[in-house]
Amino acid sequence: MNSNxxxxxxxxxxxxxxxxxxxxxxxxxxxxxxxxxxxxDFENYLxxxxxxxxxxxxxxxxMGATIIFVTSLACSCIVKIQSMLVxxxxxxITMLFSLLSLSIYIYTYKNQLIxxxxxxxxxxxxxxxxxxxxxxxxxxxxxxxxLQCCGNQSFIDWPQDAMPKSCFKNLKLYNSxxxxxxxYETGCAYKLKNVINKNFTAxxxxxxxxxxxxxxxxVLSFGLSLMCNKGGYERxx
Length: 237
Fold this sequence. Notes:
Blueprint: H1 3-39, H2 43-46, H3 55-80, H4 85-115, H5 117-126, H6 135-147, H7 188-210, H8 212-231, H9 233-236
Family: Belongs to the tetraspanin (TM4SF) family.
Organism: Glossina palpalis gambiensis
Protein name: Tetraspanin
């Protein structure tokens, strides 16, 4: 391979590494978005669990911000300070293991949440205040309305003479004597577990896929560093 071909290979490899870093940067942005989404739109489905924890939001947001910082710095190193490529590769390897650990944590936390759903809903039902709605009451009402469910395992978990309006399909037909045909018969525990399992499995899978970016990025960084040392391209390009 002549010098021109080697130089072209080097430039192509460097461009590919920059593209990988851009994709990795976007993935960091997506992790921040997921963290914010869990803390806002999806929080009502999580906070009802007896094993709820706020740590997952912060971990996702911090990881996303770290990825954005690292990739921004890496792009600068690739273009301007090519002697830092080995360090960049080492950082990417660290990010790889961090993302894999985060993926495992997400799956573990998902199971903890699911295991705490039944106790959490039971606690909400026992503390439900019909005369003066509180934030907790509104939380359970929101879950029942959105998931079209009632009670824990079924609507019979509620007292028949004191059932919240959120259990009814049509509020116009609401009365003091519940009509079973107008009540959501499926319990919220089953539906809530399915929703959490589906979304957290998707999040864990997404993080696992994102972990491929630092892996390939590290391989390209080490390869580019090797080419740079052999061909002296840092002085040429």
